Each structure stands twice: as C-alpha cells, then as structure tokens.
Amino acid sequence: MKRILHYLTARLLLTIPMLFVLLTLLFVVLRVMPGDPVSAMLGGHAPEWVIQQKKLELGLNKPIGVQYVEYLGQMARLDFGRSMIFDERVTKAITDKLPATLELTFAGLALCLGIGIPLGVRAARRRRTANDFTIRFFANVFYCIPVFWMGLMLQMIFGVFLDLFPISGRTGSRVVSGDFDKTGFYLLDTLLKGNVHAFGDVLLHLVLPALTLGLVLSGVFVRLTRGNMLDVLKSDFILASRARGIPERQVVYRHGLKNAMIPIVTMLGLQFSALLAGAILTETTFSWPGMGRLLVERIYLRDYPTIQGVIVCYALMVSVVSLVVDLTYAVIDPRVKL
Amino acid sequence: MALEPRTETAGAAFSPAGLVQGLLRRFSAAARKYRLEWWILVVGLVVILAILCMTLFPWLFTHYDPLDQNAGGQLTAPSRAHFLGTDNLGRDIGARIIYGARTIFGVAMAASILSAGIGIPLGLISGFAGNIADKVLSLVMDSIYSFPGLILAIAFAAMLGPGVVNITLAVAVIYIPTYFRLVRGQTLSIKEELYVEAARAIGARRPTILARYVFPNVIATVVIVFSLNIADAIVTESSLSFIGLGLPAGLPDWGLDLAMGKNFLPSGTWWMVTFPGLAIVILALGFTMLGEGLAEILNPRLQEY
Amino acid sequence: MATPVREPILKISNLSIAYPISIGTVRAVEDVSLTVLKGEILGIVGESGCGKSTMGLAILNLLKPPGRITQGRIEYQGTDILAMDRRQLMALRGPQIAMIFQNPLTSLDPLMSVADHFIETIRAHEPGTSAKECLERAAAILVDLGIEPKRLNEYPFQLSGGMRQRIMIGLALILHPAVLLADEPTTALDVIVEAGFTELLAALGKRYNLTVVLVTHNLAMVAEVAERIGVMYGGRIVELASAEEIFARPLHPYTQGLIACVPNIRLEQIELNAMPGSPPDLVGERNYCSFHPRCPYAMDICRSQCPSLETIEGRQVACWLHERKA
C-alpha cells in the first residue's frame, strides 16, 4: 500500500506540469490567437461599444498577463464561467453531458479491447498463415476509416437498410425520462430501477455508436497485441513452461498474454485520448447528447466560454485517465521500481 | 541501420547518390523475391499516383463541373449518366470527389510537410543540445502528444476560422510532436556513440557530424512516418470538415459532402455518404500501404520463427 | 571394474534435424544414434553450433519450426517420443523427462512468484492438489537445493542468477522425473556458482535416482561429474566412451584436441593450445568427415567418405584412423 502511495505522489508531480503546459497552450490558442471571438460571435457588424461591453464582461480587455493568471485560477477551481449564449453555468452544461460521453467512450473501449486483443492473439498464434494476414489487413484498413464514416456506414447498413438498430440519440421515444436520473449512465440507471425494457432500449441505442468507435480503434490493439505476443512467445520462460508440460493454452494465455499485456496497458492512456476524439465525431454522427456534440454546437454558435470549458475538461480527463493507467501498470508489474 | 565507419574517408561515404543506390538495390532485391511487402508498396504507390492524377488533371476523369447545380436532377441514384449519383443540390458526386481530391491531398501534404519542417529540426536540436532546453521542449511536446489530436485541431480551427491555410495550420500542429519525438529519440541514441568520438574530434566538427551521420540514419524512419502521417492527416482534415470547421461551403471537400449527405441518409439516400467516404479510405490506405511497405523493405524485420 | 548392468532408458536412433534457410538447409544433427542408460550421468560435449542443444530440444519434441526432425526415433521406455500425441507429450514432459535451460535469468515468468511457478507445475500434472500441499513440497525441495523456503513468495527479479537456476532445477525435479536434461545449465553463471552447481547436480542425481544428460561445451564440468561422455562435432557423435577412457586415451583427433586445449594449471605454459581452423559449415549434405580440415592426421579417405560410429573395445568412435579394415 505504501509503495502505491509513493508512486501516486511521484506521478502526480509529473501530471501537474503537463496539465500546466496544456492549459497554457489552450490559453494561447483560445485567447491569444488572431481571430477575435467576440466580434465573431456578435457578427461582423456589431457596434463597437457592444463589443467593448462584452469584452468587459468576459474580462477580455485586461492585459494578457492578468488574464492568464485569472484563467489559471479559474481552471484550478473548475470555474468555467457562464455561457455567452444560453443562461447557464458552463460547468453544469458539461456535467449534464459528461456521463453520456463517458458511457459511449467506455463502451467503445470495451469493444476495442474485446475485438482487438483476441484477434491479435489469434494472429500471433497463427503467424504467417492466411488468418494472420487477413486479420492484419482488416486491422490496417479499419484504422484508415474515419470514425464518422464508419458511423455513417453502420447507420446505413444496420440502421436504414436492415433496420436493426436505432441511429440517433440515447433512447427511443417509448421510454420515460424519469428512468435516468441517478447516475446519468443510462445502462446503470435502468438496471438500478429494474426497468428491463428501458435497459434494452438504451442498449440498442448504444450498439452502433460503440461499435463505430470500437471497430476503428481496435486495429491499433490488434497490431500491438500481435507484436507483443510474438515477442513474448519467443521468450525462454515460454519454452521452459512447455518443457514442464504446461498445457499449450495455459502457456499462451497465462504466461504469454499476461506478459504481452503490460506494454498494452501503457498504451491505454493514449488510446483513451483517441477514443475521446473519436467520440466527438461519433456523437455528431449519431446525435448522441454528449460533450462532443456540445462542443461542436457551441463552436458553431461561438459560445466561447463553453468551448473553453469543454476543451479544458477534456484535458483534465486525459490526465486523470493517464494517471490511473500508470497506477494500474505499477500494480500489475511487480518489477516497477517505486 | 548501421552507422557509417567513422574514419577520415567516411566523409565521402555519405552521398545522396550512394543513398539512392543503396535504396534501389534493396528495392530490387525485394522485388526479385516478390515479397508481399513489395506488392503492398506498389499498390500503395499506384493508388497515390492515381489520386495525384485526379488532382492534376481532373478533366480527364469527368466532364462534370463539381459546382454545377444543374448537372442532373437532385438526389438521383447512381446511373449511367452519373456513376455516383447526384447530391441534394443536383451536383454530380463523381465530379465532387475528383475535384475534392485536390483539397484533401493538398491540405494533408502541406500540413505534413509543415509538421515535419518544424518537428524534425526541433527534435534534432533538442536531442543534441540536451539540458534544460531539451527537458522543457520534451515536456511541451509530450503534453501535446498525449492530448487528443483532433480536439486540439478543433480548438485551433475554431479559433482561426475557416480557410484552407487555417485548416492546414490546425492539422499541422498536432503532428509536430510525432516528428519531434522520433527524431529526438534517434538523435539521443546516436549521440551516445558520438560523444566517445567527440573526445577525439575537433569541436567544430559536431554540426557536420550531425548533418552527415545523424540525419541520414534518421531519414529512412522519417520517410516512413511521413507517409503514415499523411494518411492520418487526411482522416483528420476530413473529420474537421465533417464537423463544419473546414472550408467555405462551395469548395468540394469530401468531409463536407459527407456531412451534407448525413442528413439525407434516413430517407434512404445512400450514395451521398458512401462514395466520398470510400474515397477517403482509399487515399488514406494508399499512403498507409506505402508507409508500411517501405518500413518492411528499409528496415526488414528479422525473420520471425 | 564391475559396474552393474544398466538398462537403456532413452534410445535415440538415426536422428537427423534440419533447418531450411535462404541459402540452403542447415543439417544441425546428422544421423545420431545414442543410448542413455538408466541412472547414469551422460555428458554431451561439443563446441557452439555442433548440434547438441538442438538434439536436447528434440528429445522432448520442443523443436520449433522451421527446424524439423527429418528422420529418426527417440524411444523412451519403448515408446517413440516423436510419434506421441499431445496428451502423451504433456504426460512425458515434467513427470518423466524434465529439462533445464541455459539462461536462468529469462527462464522464469517475471510476473509470477516462485510459489506460483511451483503450484502451476504441480497442478498441471496432478490437478486438484491443494495450494498448501504444493507449497509444502516446494519448500522441501528448495531446502534440498539450499534455498530458504521463505523465498517462495519472491519474484524472479529479486533473485540472483544462481538462485534462479536452482529454482529451475527445483521445478524440474518437483515431479520426480526419471530423466533430467540439462542444456548448458551454467553457461550464464559465474565460475564459482558453476562449481557449486556441478556438485549439486551429482548429489541430486544420486538422491533422486535420476538419469542426467548434461549438454555443455565445458569439458572440465563434464570431467567432474559425468560417467560417460559423448563428443559431438559437425552434427554427429564422433566419440562415445566412459569418462576415464576419454581422458586417459582419447581416440578421436577432435577429442584429443579438446583435451589438449584445457590449460594445465600446474604446468608453466607460455602459449595456450588451440585447434587451428574454424567450426564446420553445417549447410548441405556432407559426405566427408567434418573435422578433416582441422585434423592433423587427415587422410584422403577422410575427404571423400564419412566415417560411421564403430564400437571398438567397448567404446565408440567415428574416425577412419580407427575403422576396422573392411
């Protein structure tokens, strides 16, 4: 336990500078770059005094240095201000949509791993056979497919032509809204309420979007798993296990895959970032009411505080996940020096 | 890749002609064996060249004007007159794809070149110089690298506004860390060996060593990454225009067309969303295959058995 | 000297192993016939690349593609190992014939503790054994090997190379096999550990009633511990005799050369002896004696015909110098 705390502290000390760099970068992009968001928002022909007043409201007419410090303070408190367009606090807008994005992202991750890893293992075990080449080929092809097009194709085939799955939203019209107030994670909520019908409906709505994310990004895991498995299976301890009469299946999974997984776990952080990015596109394609769609909408409306809030929120999520992943890695691998 | 021998005559060992010769030799060896990797490379090249032709000579492929709204009826399904159908404004989709190749090809290429142009020198300097500068730069690059690239691109594009140049910049930024990390890593490992030499060498020779020995060894990997990068940039650019952050609505752009087509899908209009997407996939695949094929040939994996 | 008559426990007949590579086929093992007697300690000596390790792997049918066994039988208690199906092989590996390998640093799963390794090995062959019993047995064997039982809970990276090699032996012996194959077990260890190891092997051999096949390039090690010694060169067995006979009167020029190469610590030597030439190329068919380029006694016939292993006065040698005139 103590070593985990040690490790956690050390990692946090590393996370903070990175977060700091990201926030600064975002600050530069969002405030210093050419392109005045205020006049853009108000339209090109707003009178000067209106523009100035808005700027005053948002604190945009102060010197950049002061703005920077204020900005950091706000971010530390997670105070994202109020939306410029709607009468709401940005933080609330985000927390309303966050569960939807998380639910989608995690479902996508589950599919990603569930498809990618077994296929990677299969390709490694049957290397240089037709199986191997086909799997690798499709993994490569899928990775080149833009997430949104995958979504569109899935919508087209399974939604429109075969009419098997719904193609937009998280729930259908048959479901009552009162079923979802506990956690915001619809799958959980419906189960907690015992409403099987609603659960089924929510699940159906989740299938295509999750599959979109999962299929496209599984390619990375196929390749990673295959590569790592091939390396591990050449190891001496694998040969030694076989020599002791350990059944092949156990050798491959218990010894092989477990060891191969370690580099994969370290990649999870980066892949989560890719999933978050993909989720934005998926939410747009499937009209999924999450943070991604919020971001896109508000960009269109030039709702500058909300845009800032959402992006910073993404930065925070990525940092947290990265930390958790590193911790998991430290727990799994007894060799990690702490 | 093995380093050149570091003797007096080594200076002459590196020459562009020699490098090309070596490459050609390896290329023909692979070709002679008709290895799978060589075929992958060839297919990739063919695809890229085909699309390149489309960008340079679009009139050879279609006689329709991508902006012409009177080409045929609105939302007509693929037919002999319009191979890929028409969109909701009556424009021929085939033409929009062919002319759209320019935008996507150009942006992806330009963005990649820009990224490489910034990332590589920074990586070289950072790796070679070390110290605080290296630490700071690495921190910055790692932070950017771990952040979802698309989101960063969205942020840039949103703030910069529409336009081809802006989009190129937005896409370029997110790939700088890729080149930086790659080059820095290689530089570091080579530097280890060079410092032994540095004790004997005259100080002023170091920049030359950098240019003559570090760079050529790194270049093979860079070329491969460059190719794969373009594939990625293609997907990123189309993602941006799908969201609506790309270019002015008139310019034919594959992502934009897909965004438009999405609205008509529920009613059964499938051709608007299928073909532009297919084009994206094929072009991205082309560059991916080029990159992967090159990777196998230039840095052949040890026979796995 | 009266030695009890021992039965053969492992019989290799006309074994040939080949690896196809881009420029041809490497014939790593050529027509090797060898009998291992029950209870003996047999040493197989040869330089790197002579095929001895390959042969060792083949005994348990652990050879990986592209290596293939092109001909031959390996009989264990009458059954041909190479013809065994998967289930028979699993029953063979571990409880009947066990093997330890060259590199102890990488022969243990880094993610599993020592105890886990033992539990897994025991349960693979005696399913249903309680963890408690497994640990008891493991602790007992570790004590035999000179390791404190409390180290069972440690992970491989916490143990030294010598310790890891002992753990490997422990894992090999935990199921009380009849035969132990040791493939260059001390090559990765320092000489002091190596010396202790040789003693350990001899003691364990007696205690557990083991037949030991020790494959190594270390002549000195084999001299200490082996009862019979087989010398391999170029994928073939060139001499096979009791340890005393080999060292007292080596017949094959290669064996003579090997023994001569070992520096005598008592004599003042100015130069070290070495055999001229380099190891043979194992690609392709070799219808000649592989040693002839380096042999001081090479004759014409050595270049054109390969000598077969002949039995002379109770020992075997493959050399035209000693062939019975046909």
What would your notes on this structure say?
The complex is a heterotrimer of chains A (338), B (305) and C (326). By secondary structure, chain A is mainly α. Chain A has helices spanning 2-32, 37-42, 48-58, 64-76, 90-125, 130-144, 147-161, 186-193, 196-233, 236-243, 248-286, 291-301, 304-332. In chain A, 77% of the residues lie in helices and 0% in strands. The N and C termini of chain A lie close together (11 Å). Chain B has 305 residues and is mainly α. Chain B is 72% helix and 0% strand. Chain B is built from ten helices and no strands. In chain B, helix 8 packs parallel to helix 9. In chain B, 46% of the residues are buried. Chain C is built from ten helices and twelve strands. In chain C, a hairpin with a 2-residue loop joins strand 4 (68-76) and strand 5. In chain C, helix 3 packs across helix 4 (131-144). The two termini of chain C are 32 Å apart. Classes of the chains: A mainly alpha (338), B mainly alpha (305), C alpha/beta (326). Chains in contact: A-B, A-C. At the A-B interface, helix 1, helix 6, helix 7, helix 11 and helix 12 of A face helix 5, helix 6, helix 8, helix 9 and helix 10 of B.
Structural class of chain C: alpha/beta
Order of strands, widest sheet of chain C: 6-7-8-3-9-10-12-11
What number is the mean pLDDT of chain C?
86
List low-pLDDT spans of chain C.
Answer: none
Kindly state the number of beta strands of chain A: 0
* Multimerization state: heterotrimer
* Silhouette of chain C: globular
List the helices and strands of chain A in order.
HHHHHHHHHHHHH
SS field, number of helical segments of chain A: 13
So how many helices of chain C?
10
Helix content of chain A: over 70%
H-E order of chain C: EEEHEEHEHHHEHEHEEHHHEE
Q: How far apart are the first and last residues' alpha carbons of chain C, in Å?
A: 32 Å
Instruction: Report the C-alpha radius of gyration of chain C, rounded.
Output: 21 Å
